[in-house]
Amino acid sequence: MSELLNVALPKGRLGDKVYGLFEKAGYGCPDVLDPGRRLVFESPERGVRYFFVKPSDVAIYVERGAADVGVAGKDILLEYRPDVYELLDLGLGRCRMCVCGRPGHSDSGERSLRVATKFTRITRDYYASLGRSVDLIHLNGSIELAPILGLSDVIVDIVETGATLRENGLAVLTEILPISARFIANKPSCKFKYEAVTALTRRLSDCIEEKL
Fold first, then answer.
1. Residue 10: in which H helix or E strand, if any?
2. Contact (Cβ atoms closer than 8 angstroms) between residue 10 and residue 58
3. What is 170-193 written as a DSSP string?
4. Other beta carbons less than 10 A from residue 179's beta carbon
5. Which residues fall within 8 angstroms of residue 16, CB to CB, at 6 or more apart?
6. Which alpha helices (H) appear in the chain, and where do they start and end?
7. Tens digit of pLDDT for each residue in 87-142?
8. Under a CB-based contact definition with an 8 Å cutoff, are residues 134 and 88 in contact?
9. Is residue 118 within 8 Å of residue 138, measured between CB atoms?
10. Are the C-beta atoms of residues 158 and 75 closer than 8 Å to each other?
């Protein structure tokens, strides 16, 4: 029996959508639908072994070789820059990385702009491209509180529907870049499991094109 392809998928709603795409591509594993307390799910018939991890950890598993392939958001790839191959844009989990703040906020440029975010690298690169000096404030949660309480002038965060912003009197000021789920691969795996990785990539690509 050939060696199984290890696949790291993100936990949660996005992971469910991603697994649905893999299943449609012919890589289903019935045990995934009835997980219980299991952490790893194998389908020798399809040649895959799935495991679900925290979304921000997928790229680490793939980069370190614990997973041959996986699915991670473009935000994670830009923020942490793992040494992996980005093979496909799956078109799932679409959202935007944005600068947000109070409606009508104006940046006078007279002092460093105070920006709260958990995406410090993306934020730093964005403002550096504008030649704007910023005071970065790293936060891990409830980013929207920062401008409300005067901790920051604006925030940089992921926006899906914008409902949370509106409920807190904030708005999107500038869109930095679009975000979506990407199919990534471990570099050595692309060499040593070339046929398996290529076949999966092709099937996923075909499914995505069918939806367009």
1. strand 5-10
2. yes
3. -EEEEEEEEE-EEEEE-HHHHHHT
4. 22
5. none
6. 13-24, 58-64, 74-80, 120-130, 145-148, 163-167, 187-192, 194-211
7. 999 999 999 999 999 998 888 888 999 999 999 999 999 999 999 999 999 999 88
8. no
9. yes
10. yes
